[in-house]
Protein 1
Amino acid sequence: MIGRYSFLQVALVLFGAIFCLVYPLALVWPSGWAWHEGPPAASQYYMMIVGVYATLGLFLIRAASNPAANRSLIWFTIWSSLVHAAIMAVQALQNPQHMGHMLGDVPALLLVALVLGLLMRGVEDRNIATG
C-alpha cells in the first residue's frame, strides 16, 4: 500500500539526487543556479555550496530508508531550504542581473520545503496517533 510515508521516501530520494546534481544544473542553466560569471568551478564559494548540498543529498537518500529515525535531518532540510530561498529571493530582487534565480533555485527550494513539510506533517501526525 502506497501512503504518505512511501511518498516521503520517494521525495527524499528524488530531492537528495537533485541536491547531488547542483553542479551539473549550474552548467546547464547558470542564470538559475549559479551566482557568479563563468563556469561553476570558477567560484570557491559556489564549490563549497556544491559540497554542502551534495553531502545533504546523500544523507537525504540514506534517510529515505527510515524517515521516522531521521526527522531532525528532514526538518533541517525543510527550514534551511526556506531560509536559503528567502535570502536568495531578496538578493535577486535587489540585483536585477540575478532574476533568473526567481525561476530556478528559489522556487526549487520552496518546493523542497513544501513537499517535505507536508509529508512530514502527515508522518508525525500518524506517529502521535499511534505512539
Note: The mean pLDDT is 89.
Protein 2
Amino acid sequence: MCPHQPLCPSHEAPDRDAARILAAHPEQGWSLLCNGVVLFEDTGELLPDGEIIAPHRPTDLQAPSAA
C-alpha cells in the first residue's frame, strides 16, 4: 500500500501508528493511515482486516505505587 520511501510500518507492526496520514478528518475524529489503519482521535484503531484496537492513551496506564 505504501508508495513512498522509507516504507511505512505494516498494520501488523507494533509501531503501525507511525504510518503517514493519507486522509485526515479531524472534524469527524479519524484519519486514514498509509498502511490502511483508521486511527481515531481517542487512540482507538480499526485495522484493514477488521480487527478493532481499543483506545490506548498513555493516561490509561496504572501509575506506579509509592513505595
Note: The two ends are 49 Å apart (CA to CA).
Protein 3
Amino acid sequence: MISRPCLDLLQRHFPQLQQPFSSSPAWCVLLELSDGGNSEQLISQLAEILFASGFSNAYVAQNQRQAQDFWRLRERIPEAQRIEGVSIKHDISIPVGDIPRFLTECQNELIQQYPDANIVAFGHLGDGNLHYNLFLNEKTALIYQFELAINTIVYRFSRSI
C-alpha cells in the first residue's frame, strides 16, 4: 500500500523511475500473485475480482521487467525520504480492517495540530504493518522538538483502533 505523498516523493527525487499512472492516485496497492498454473488465467481472475469490487483503475505487469519496475517504486521510498530530509518515523501495526479509519483519524488530528505536516504512509496491507512518517515542511530543522507530541498522537490512535 503506497500513498500519493510517497509517489510524489519518488517523482521529485527519482523522476527516472517510471510510474504506471497518468495521474497519481490517492492510494495504490502493489499486489503480487503467483501459482504453478496458467498466469493468464490468474490475471484474468484477479481482473474480474477487482472490477467486481469497484476497482476500475488497475495496472498489471505484462512481463517480469515491468513487475520489477513496480516493486522498484516501493523499494525506493525510504531513500526518497532520506533525500527529502528529516522526518518522524513510525513502524506500527494496525488491524487490517482498521487501517482506513486509523489513516483518516490520525491524519485529521495531526493536520489540525501541524497544518504543514506531510504524512508519508506506506506498508504491508496484508499484515497491517504500516510505515507512518511525518515531515513538517516549515519546521524541518526543528522537527525533533515536536517528536514527543507527534508520537503521542500516532500511538494513541494506533492503540485505540
Note: The first helix runs from residue 4 to 13.
Protein 4
Amino acid sequence: MRFDTKVTFYTEKKGQYNPYTSKHEHAREMWEVLANVTNLGTQSQMRLLGKLDSGAKTIRLLEDPPEGWSYLTINDDKARYVKKTEVKALKGHALIVGEQK
C-alpha cells in the first residue's frame, strides 16, 4: 500500500470580532499528511453508509488524524470532504469521507 497522496486537514474556529473590518475573523489551522486514498466501492458504501454516495473515499493513515478537524482536501483540490465514519486498525487509521455539500 502506497502512502503517496497529500491530505490536508483543516480546523476552523470562530475568531475574534475585528472592529476595523466589522467582521469576525476565522482562525484556520491545517495539517498535511501523506495517505493512501481510494474510492469506496458500491458494496462497501451500502454496508457502511446504507446508501450510495458518489464522492465517498477511503483514506488510510499511518497515524491518528488530528483532533477536532472540520474538513479535509485531497491533493489541494477545491473539493472539501467531511468524516462519515472511521476505523482504528492494528496498523494505522482509516477514514470514510464524503464530499461536503
Note: The CA atoms of residues 19 and 68 lie 28 Å apart.
